[in-house]
Amino acid sequence: MTRINEVDRDVLEQAIYLPMIIIILERDLKIIEKSPFKIKQPYITLMENTIKNVQRDLKEVKNKMRKGNMRVNQIGHDESFTMYEFHYKGYDEQHNYFNPRIRNRCEELLNFYIKKKDF
Length: 119
Hints:
The protein is an alpha+beta fold. It is built from three helices and three strands; from the N terminus they run ααβββα. A three-stranded antiparallel beta sheet has the order 1-2-3. The longest helix is centred in the N-terminal third of the chain and has 29 residues, at 6-34. The N and C termini lie far apart (41 Å). The model has no long low-confidence stretch (mean pLDDT 94).
């Protein structure tokens, strides 16, 4: 049984997913910059602004984690699962995440951030 409430678990999970989203977007940006598009700049601008939005949200997540005495560490992975250790208010818990679930959640977040129009 977990001692982590749902709101704090969501913050901890964001600390897992948002850095992955930044890595994905940075890789995609490099591909776009090297691609033979006739007009690259709109795509580059979209990617750069999306990265900035994700970085801003990651900073907020890190602040919440610091204030709430929370940390996340990846402690292992294999072809099916990735294991994380959550440090939460003096307690340590291990959680396994199914790798396709991680991929699907990252895809959902990418769609959310790319559709976000506040830049």
